[in-house]
Amino acid sequence: VFLKLVSCGTCLDGRIWKAHGVSFEVKDGTNETCLIAEISANFSVTYVATSQEGVTHFVLPDKAIVDKSSTCGNDTTSPLLAISFETNNTLRMNFSRNSTNYHADKLTFTYSLTDSTLFPNATTSTGPVTVSTAATDIDANVNTTYRCLSVQRFLMPNVTIDFSSVRIEAYAKGNFSKDESVCSRDTASTTVPTPKSTTPAPTKTPDPGNPETFDYNVTGSDGICLLAKMGLQLNITYKTNESQRTSTVFNIKPNFTTTGICGNNSAVLIVTDKDTVLSFFFALNTCEQVYHCSALKLPSSWSQWNFISNFSVHNDSLGYMRASLGKSYMCNSEQKIQVAMNFSINAFNVRIQAFKIDGDKFGIAEECQQDEDNMLIPIIVGAALAGLVLIVLIAYLIGRKRSHAGYQTI
Ligand SMILES: *[C@@H]1O[C@H](CO)[C@@H](O)[C@H](O)[C@H]1NC(C)=O
Ligand SMILES: *[C@@H]1O[C@H](CO)[C@@H](O)[C@H](O)[C@H]1NC(C)=O
Ligand SMILES: *[C@@H]1O[C@H](CO)[C@@H](O)[C@H](O)[C@H]1NC(C)=O
Ligand SMILES: *[C@@H]1O[C@H](CO)[C@@H](O)[C@H](O)[C@H]1NC(C)=O
Ligand SMILES: *[C@@H]1O[C@H](CO)[C@@H](O)[C@H](O)[C@H]1NC(C)=O
Ligand SMILES: *[C@@H]1O[C@H](CO)[C@@H](O)[C@H](O)[C@H]1NC(C)=O
């Protein structure tokens, strides 16, 4: 008999399963780590494809590795972190420093359209394409870890890269320093975005009604890894002035340019609507054989509402939509997914299944608590009615027996 050993290290960190960033380390000639990073990144690349308009979305894969061209630098060259993944795709970050701060000067992305997994049906077969940013706002004090959990967007020609859950230390000494330089977005993330003074914020937005239910699926090399059916409504709270807050609610109407990513222990559903890109991260706990929605990301540019344009949220410690592997999660009741203080999602008629899916059909449903609670009321009412019927019946039978007995004595 063989015992199947399952690595449970990560199960220990509570019930919550995080969508971790991918880790990288650059070492110098004496094996000392000089550059260390943890990065989670979402890429979107526009390219020319045969069948449809080519827009691809992918995440920095777990398999990404430190490229040989990475260096700790010396007196003449600056440190470089080069990350390569899939076929010939490389993300590079150059660092420099002065006496107090270090800084990522530039982000460069080289991608190869011949990589058909990332760029399906690309028509260009020319060599690799390289794009870069002018400057970055990755800046930290020397001897501290740069930390930015919020989404940080880098715009390049045809390419958008969204970093999140980032920890980086350049000029490091073996490991991350305990002291952190936290990016301004993280320190500001608990505050509600304030409106730009020029645009009067609406004090009341019309009720959009319940959202329409849409079907979603994410297909990887081994078939469908995520199947969903749901209606989504976003709720954003913002300040109308110093003292007043209001919320706006709107429904998601996806346009299906994007789908998501299939990984071994993580799957991503990317819902794209006109101005919104909403990523649902699902994590699989291989020890307990359960999956759940562990993270949500929303970088958006709501140009129609100046007062909340460039709103972004990222929370990677969620525990919603939990179900057993091979089964589907179902919730007919309206479900509120609180992502941040100023942002929640109302989900309607949810049926979702991730990782193990038999063909393209949902497995047995595991209902959410709200549905079970809602079921309880009809059950109680039903039981009470049944009880009443029984009492009436017994009373009738007793009555009948008594009257029979009455006749017999005559
Ligand atoms: C660095 O470490 C690796 C593995 O830990 C080892 O194989 C290699 O020989 C070491 N190199 C030096 C220069 O110490
Ligand atoms: C070092 O660089 C930072 C920005 O990266 C800047 O704010 C600071 O003033 C610089 N310090 C010196 C001493 O030049
Ligand atoms: C950073 O640490 C090194 C040694 O660990 C020290 O020599 C240096 O002065 C420190 N720099 C700052 C700006 O604290
Ligand atoms: C939107 O969020 C606010 C603040 O949490 C809440 O008061 C309001 O009831 C929510 N609206 C809807 C329709 O969910
Ligand atoms: C879907 O939305 C994306 C993002 O805004 C946009 O680039 C794309 O053109 C849209 N696709 C369709 C088919 O409307
Ligand atoms: C993430 O979501 C959880 C659960 O809703 C919440 O407790 C936590 O405060 C959120 N974190 C942030 C940074 O908003």
UniProtKB/TrEMBL annotation:
Q: Where in the cell is it found?
A: Cell membrane; Cytolytic granule membrane; Late endosome membrane; Lysosome membrane
Topology of this chain in the membrane: Single-pass type I membrane protein
User: GO CC annotation: what is one?
Assistant: late endosome membrane
GO biological process: what's one of them?
establishment of protein localization to organelle
Which stretches make up the Lysosome-associated membrane glycoprotein 2-like transmembrane domain?
Answer: 377-408
Q: Report the superkingdom from the record.
A: Eukaryota
Q: Where are the transmembrane segments?
A: 375-398
Pfam entry (one): Lamp2-like_luminal
Q: What is this protein called?
A: Lysosome-associated membrane glycoprotein 1
This protein's species is: Latimeria chalumnae (Coelacanth)
Underlying gene: LAMP1
